[in-house]
Structures are given as structure tokens and as C-alpha cells.
Design a protein that fits this description.
The protein is an alpha/beta fold. It has one domain: Alpha-Beta Complex (Spore Coat Polysaccharide Biosynthesis Protein SpsA, Chain A). It has helices spanning 23-32, 46-57, 73-79, 92-101, 124-133, 151-155, 158-174, 190-194, 205-215, 240-252; strands spanning 33-39, 61-66, 83-86, 109-113, 137-143, 185-189, 219-224. Strands 3-2-1-4-6-5-7 form a 7-stranded mixed beta sheet, sandwiched between helices. Helix 7 packs parallel to helix 10. The longest helix is centred in the middle third of the chain and has 17 residues, at 158-174.
């Protein structure tokens, strides 16, 4: 059995410069990352999300996997230059996996980010740096609950307690210590995903990905990020927490 190393805290200072990164640096990141975004009726958030990614990363390769949106999500994404795939299955997890499988070129790192404009793209270069400088780190996650301006938003969020309960469950059952295990902003070494065949189809995909990286013997690092109120209707419901807990339980038998 692979020895699982619990994640030790790594302190990454919050970004202070809110401007886009220097274009030369951005081009270096563009050559190292591809971006996968799962969408379903995200016409309000997909445009700002893509626009910010293009500015911060100097037009990276973007793959949108759409789960049959009934609004203008696909139209907006195509008009902004993203490659759009129609999802063959159902659920967020299925879309994320399809997006990775269909990347047109091999890059060291894959960015997964939600389409609702919740997660600021400005943190991605810092997250890539952590991976580049630490070969024992397999994934970097943006922790919404440790951001400089997030304390009030976190404590009043009805999902905060549920997230913490699931974080505790993943620590006890999978040996994965994370403060925000369900974060929708994460960057993974592509080599880890090459052999990954996820069973998750929905919102339990993040919990399964956490466990998959841990089983490979890699550390998972979190950096504090700020986050914004989502644009559009929220898809994650409290009832999805049960499915996530079942996934954590099922992953425990693999360790």
C-alpha cells in the first residue's frame, strides 16, 4: 500500500498586486497549463470567467465541456475563442474527465475552475509556481475559507459547516487533510490524471480527485484565496453532501 503523507501547512502569502501578470510571465504559464471548465447554463458567469483567464494567462488553451445548456453558454464560450465540447455523459465529474481526455496538447499542469466567476484567476500563476518548485506536490487548491476578505462570507455561508464536516471525514477516512476539499479552483499535474479513471459523475469529483492524488504519494497544498459571489443560479445543493460523503467512504477502502 502506498504510504499517504498528510498535508503539512504551506503558507503562501496573498497576492497584493491585483493587476494582470507581466505578459512575458503569462506566456510562460500559457505553455505550461491548459484549462478545463465544466458548464451547464452558465451564461452569466462563463464570459467573465473566460475573459479573466485569457488576461491572466495570456490566452491559454481552454476546453469547455457543456452539459446541454439551454441558455447562451455555448454561444458565449465559442465567441470568446474556447473549444467547446458537448458532454457525452452527465454531471460535473464526467465533464471534467471528458475535458482532460480531450486536451489537444500535453502540458505539465491542468487547471480546473468553475464557470460561475467565483474564483479569481489571478491566483493561478502563484499556484503553478508551487507545483513547479515542489515536485512532491501533486495538486494545489484554492482555499476559500482562508482568504484575506472571506471570514464573514464563510461564516454566513450555509455550506461552510457542511464543507468542514466533509473535510473532517476525508481526513479520518482517506488521510487527506484539507481545509477546503470541495474547492472549484485546483491545478493538478497532468501525469497524475493520465491513469485516473474517476467513478464520480457529479459534485463528488473533487473528493475523489483529492484521494487519487493522495494515493499517488503526492502532497496537496492549499493557498488562501478570495472568492466572489457566483453569477447565476447555484447548482450545488445540501442534498449533494450525501453523495460526497458516500464517495469519501468508498475511497477509504482503496487506501
Amino acid at each position: 500500500m502506498t504510504e499517504i503523507r498528510l498535508n503539512t501547512p504551506v503558507v503562501i502569502s496573498s497576492l497584493t498586486d491585483r493587476d494582470s501578470v507581466d505578459s512575458k510571465i503569462a506566456k510562460e504559464y500559457r505553455s505550461n497549463v491548459s484549462v478545463v471548465i465544466a458548464t451547464l447554463n452558465e451564461e452569466e458567469g462563463i464570459g467573465p470567467t473566460i475573459d479573466e483567464l485569457q488576461k491572466v494567462l495570456d490566452n491559454p488553451y481552454l476546453v469547455i465541456v457543456d452539459g446541454n445548456s439551454a441558455d447562451r453558454t455555448i454561444e458565449i464560450a465559442k465567441n470568446m475563442g474556447a473549444d467547446v465540447l458537448l458532454q457525452e455523459g452527465q454531471g460535473k465529474g464526467d465533464a471534467m474527465f471528458q475535458g482532460f481526455q480531450n486536451l489537444s496538447s500535453k502540458v505539465p499542469f491542468v487547471v480546473f475552475i468553475d464557470a460561475d466567476f467565483t474564483y479569481p484567476a489571478e491566483y493561478i500563476p502563484r499556484m503553478v509556481e508551487v507545483l513547479e518548485q515542489n515536485p512532491d506536490v501533486g495538486m494545489v487548491i484554492g482555499n476559500r475559507f482562508k482568504g484575506e476578505h472571506n471570514l464573514g462570507k464563510s461564516m454566513t455561508n450555509s455550506f461552510y459547516l457542511g464543507n468542514k464536516m466533509l473535510a473532517f471525514a476525508q481526513l479520518v477516512l482517506n488521510g487527506i487533510k484539507l481545509g477546503d476539499p470541495l474547492s472549484g479552483l485546483r491545478i493538478v499535474r497532468s501525469e497524475i490524471l493520465d491513469e485516473w479513471k474517476p467513478k464520480s459523475k457529479g459534485f463528488d469529483v473533487e473528493a475523489e480527485m483529492n484521494a487519487a492524488v493522495g494515493r499517488k504519494g503526492y502532497r496537496i497544498v492549499e493557498i488562501p484565496i478570495d472568492y466572489r459571489i457566483r453569477l447565476g443560479d447555484k447548482k450545488l445543493k445540501l442534498r449533494h453532501g450525501l453523495g460526497i460523503m458516500k464517495r469519501i467512504l468508498s475511497e477509504s477502502v482503496k487506501f
